[in-house]
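During the reporting period the student researcher (J.K.) took over the structure-prediction task from the postdoctoral fellow and processed the backlog of single-chain submissions. One of the processed entries is reproduced below for the supervisory committee.
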Amino acid sequence: MQLLNLPAQGFAALGRSASLTMLGIHDYWLFVATGVLLNLTPGQDTLYILGRSIAQGRQIGVASALGISAGSVVHTLAAAL
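J.K. obtained the following structure tokens:
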């Protein structure tokens, strides 16, 4: 199916033979479950904090966690602009 050079009507001009599949609201639970699973999975930042905490103590581990949190906030604000 060629989606380029569509007439002014856009996708409606393709008719029923070219159905574009999207996830509906009935698949929302799958989206939420996947998001929760990805957030619970430890990543590189968690391993970094654990490594610093084990090697250099609790105070350095807390400082590392606060630094990563601050970096995440800055990253999120920059992405929102």
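The committee noted the following: The radius of gyration is 23 Å.
J.K. will present the remaining backlog at the next meeting.
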